[in-house]
From TrEMBL:
Alphabetical list of Pfam families matching this protein: ABC_tran
Protein name: Ectoine/hydroxyectoine ABC transporter ATP-binding protein EhuA
Residue ranges, annotated region (Disordered): 1-22
Main location: membrane
Source superkingdom: Bacteria
Keywords recorded for this protein, A-Z: Amino-acid transport, ATP-binding, Cell membrane, Membrane, Nucleotide-binding, Transport
Low complexity biased stretches: 11-22
Taxonomic source organism: Nesterenkonia sedimenti
Keyword set includes tRNA processing: no
Protein encoded by which gene: ehuA
Protease found in the keyword field: no
CDD domains linked to this entry: ABC_HisP_GlnQ
Length: 278
């Protein structure tokens, strides 16, 4: 019997959002990122439409997580521009020069973006409920009563309705990651970034976490930018898959095409190794 992450059995998927004249939700323009002399990304250009779910695949070190961290402003851009809804995220061109945007503008854009990390990143000194309501109250300025009500609803959604008063250290890895998903969703993000969210989990709980994310994909219009080695999940939820190698996109397209008939030799070799094909 095929498993939920079996890439040969894709789930039904809605059509990709229209890529008409609407402003992209995420746009990378000539993006460059260096760590010292190491060029991780160079002249990177791509867009993500509103409601689109895009998965980045490729070998470790190809720049995928760096892309998410740049969108989350956890890394500083070396060159180029990133736009959120057409607004410059960290730098803009002014009088012919590339200059930083104000911290106030950057912070306002950041509130539209949520991220679920590989290592959960929960506050151990706070309860599950406190972890979830912290940002909605202190960043978005929501009334505490409303934030608490929303948090309980999200805990129900991720299957942890009885864990509001628990501390993260008392939870399993799978439970912590589900809390992390609830915390990200508590901000009602326009964009949800997922960075290898199952790689630190025991194999038997990976399916539970992926099913929650499938439900989010099916029931919301949140734009998703995903980094994962779970190829079945990538095929199930994505409108587009982008294959990265050496900090550049070597191939992109609909997941059915990428996974069944990739054109680029590098994509063929990568998927062959990951999926165990000869």
């Amino acid at each position: 019997m095929p498993t939920p992450t079996d890439p040969t059995v894709p789930a039904p998927r809605e059509a990709a959002p229209s890529s008409s004249a609407e402003t992209p939700v995420i746009e990378f323009t000539d993006v460059e990122k260096r760590f010292g002399d190491n060029v991780v990304l160079k002249d990177l250009n791509f867009t993500v439409s509103r409601g689109e779910r895009v998965t980045l695949i490729g070998p470790s070190g190809s720049g995928k997580t760096t892309i998410l961290r740049l969108v989350m402003t956890l890394e500083e851009l070396t060159g180029g521009y990133i736009f959120i809804d057409g607004e410059p995220l960290t730098h803009e061109e002014r009088n012919g020069k590339r200059v930083p945007v104000s911290k106030k503008r950057q912070k306002a854009l950041r509130t539209r973006i949520g991220m679920v990390f590989q290592q959960f990143n929960l506050f151990p000194n706070m309860t599950v409920l406190e972890n979830i309501i912290e940002a909605p109250i202190h960043v978005l300025g929501r009334p505490k009563k409303d934030a608490i009500e929303h948090a309980h609803s999200l805990l129900e959604q991720v299957g942890l309705p009885d864990k509001a008063d628990a501390h993260p250290t008392s939870l399993s890895g799978g439970q912590q990651q589900r809390v992390a998903i609830a915390r990200a969703l508590a901000m009602d993000p326009e964009i949800l970034l997922l960075d290898e969210v199952t790689s630190a989990l025991d194999p038997e709980v990976v399916g539970d976490v992926l099913n929650i994310l499938r439900e989010v994909a099916d029931t919301t219009n949140v734009t998703m930018l995903i980094v994962t080695h779970e190829m079945g999940f990538a095929r199930d939820v994505s409108h587009k898959v982008m294959m990265f190698d050496g900090g550049r996109v070597v191939e992109e397209g609909h997941p059915d095409k990428i996974f069944t008939n990739p054109e680029h030799e590098r994509t063929q070799k990568f998927l062959g190794a990951v999926l165990g094909h000869n």
